[in-house]
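Our consortium's second objective concerns turning raw sequence data into structural hypotheses that experimental partners can test. To show how far this objective has progressed, the report includes one record in full. It was chosen at random from the queue rather than selected for favorable results. The single chain below, 116 residues long, was entered without modification.
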Amino acid sequence: MSDLGGGKTTFVRGLARGMGSTDTVASPTFMICKQYRADALTLYHYDFYRLSEPGIMEHELQEGLSDPHAVIVVEWADIVADILPKERITITIKNVSEHERQLSIKAPKAILDSIT
């Protein structure tokens, strides 16, 4: 999604607010996963940066993926790429300058059609 300090948590903070959450959003780096309530949805924010293998977190992620009321953001997703849905939105954040980021968003047509 982005390098260290690239704005991933800031992006998730905006996503949570846009979903209606009033929770305080912080990086899950040392906790691996944080959850934020937003009306009928739960935002799960995973950060696998410190993991060399997914271990039990793979099972927890699979549970969240099967929940129709879950929105899931995965940072450093390479470690769990084999269990992520093929139909997913991928957002890449590139540092342009100290205060500027460029977002690249890739989404399958089926997902785009379902949200428009």
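The partners drew two points from this record. The mean pLDDT is 84. Residues 101 and 111 are 24 Å apart (CA to CA). Both points have been shared with the crystallography group to help prioritize constructs.
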